[in-house]
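[worker-b] picked up task from shared queue
[worker-b] task type: protein-ligand structure
[worker-b] ligand name resolved to adenosine-5'-triphosphate; SMILES cross-checked against name lookup, match
[worker-b] sequence length check passed
[worker-b] input payload:
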Amino acid sequence: MQARLITLEGIDGVGKTTHIAHLVGYLSAQDLPVTTYREPGATPLGEELRQILKHGPPRSPLAELLLFAAARAELVSSRVKPDLTAGTWVILDRFTESTLAYQGALGAIPEKVLRAVCKAATAGLVPDLTLWLDLEPQQAFSRRYPLAGVLDAQNGGAQAATELDAIEQRSLGYFTRVRERYLAMHEAEPERVLRIDASGSVEETAAKIRKAVTKKLKSWNKRD
Ligand SMILES: Nc1ncnc2c1ncn2[C@@H]1O[C@H](COP(=O)(O)OP(=O)(O)OP(=O)(O)O)[C@@H](O)[C@H]1O
Ligand SMILES: [Mg+2]
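[worker-b] inference finished, payload out:
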């Protein structure tokens, strides 16, 4: 079967990294060659840009967009495209949909510009399947910082907040808008951008992902 590009999306803490590990295991067990990369990162340039984006100086929305795009351009040209051509399946921890959701939710850059930059960065590469792990922002936050509520109660919430990077520090309202943007992408392309309810246990969500991917594998098998 032709190698496919699958991306995992969703707000911070929904479980993307956790479920990528499960998915890699699931595809490998079916003898499919598979590799995975995180965004931004996974290349020498991308990892440097990741540090700047997470912990670097303040930047304008446009500068932020272009830094993410630079990391992606490097990843696509040096890793993703060569892998797919060589027959290796690629699973990405975030891709174009993250830019449309996160930079879109800043509200400063027209959708047309966002899409044009993404298209240039990816040389038009669109994931075969995007799994959008959906969860309420508050629930996603408490998954990553299970003690944050307790710390707040003890008037020590600031301690949890200082561990957050530049994007994670944005407000709950921001993440609500990010989530709405993911929803709009799912509604626009319901077959390619699948919504996976991520509110259950790790095993429940992993089972939902396996079911969705199995269905896709069957349809791709027929097509090839
Ligand atoms: N379905 C689940 N139920 C409960 N806890 C979960 C579930 N999925 C993941 N977790 C836990 O939630 C935390 C966040 O998961 P993970 O790091 O995979 O999220 P992420 O989406 O990759 O986050 P980030 O955007 O920060 O990379 C981890 O501690 C993980 O073990
Ligand atoms: Mg992660």
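[worker-b] attaching auto-annotations
[worker-b] Residues 61-85 form the longest helix (25 residues).
[worker-b] releasing lock
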